[in-house]
Amino acid sequence: MNETILQSLQKKYPINALQKVLKLPKNISLDQLSGLIRNEFRKAVGRNVEAWISDIYKDYVIAYFSNEGKYYKIPFSIDGTSIKFDFSKKVEVVRSWTEVK
Q1: Is 90 helix (H, G, I), strand (E, B) or coil?
Q2: What is residue 80's DSSP assignment?
Q3: Closest Cα partner for 57 from 73, 41, 44?
Q4: Beta-bridge partners for 55
Q5: Under 8 Å between Cβ of 53 and 37
Q6: What is the greatest pairwise CA distance in the chain?
Q7: Burial of 4 by CB count in 10 Å (0-12 exposed, 13-18 middle, 19+ buried)?
Q8: Measured distance CA(7)–CA(19) in Å, rounded
Q9: Contact criterion met (CB below 8 Å) for 51 and 64
Q10: Residues 39-86: pLDDT tens digits?
Q11: Which of 66, 60, 67 is nearest to 90 (CA)?
């Protein structure tokens, strides 16, 4: 993330605002949360599906399904101690790259 984006976030959200937005307890790091989301996703898709999360957002993930060769936006929610993915609302997304000259 570049410095401009970080400065913009710091102005918009004071210290600990991300935890408030995500409603995280203070003793859970974003790395721990990311690991939990990734582990639960792996369980939700099953062992026979080659899929992994490429990006995590506040209420959805972007996951790549290698058997299809496609990326999907998949909503999720955290309710107490459980993480639920709503695969019925998954939407295919396309990632594009632009050459820098």
Answers
A1: coil
A2: T
A3: 73
A4: 62
A5: yes
A6: 48
A7: exposed
A8: 18
A9: yes
A10: 999 999 998 899 999 999 989 999 999 999 999 999 998 877 788 999
A11: 60
No. of helices (H) and no. of strands (E), the chain? 3, 5
For residue 44, what are its two tokens? 């939700």
Amino acid residing at 77: S
In angstroms, rounded to a whole number, what is the distance separating the alpha carbons of residues 24 and 73? 22
- DSSP annotation of 87: G
pLDDT digits (tens, 9 = 90+) for 10-23: 666 555 555 555 66
C-alpha–C-alpha distance, residues 42 and 53, integer Å: 9
Of 69, 82, 86, the C-alpha closest to 36 is 82
Tokens describing residue 43: 């369980």
Task: Please state, in angstroms and as integers, the Cα–Cα distance from residue 13 to each residue in 10, 21, 28, 30, following that order.
Answer: 5, 9, 19, 16
Distance CA 18, CA 16 (A): 5
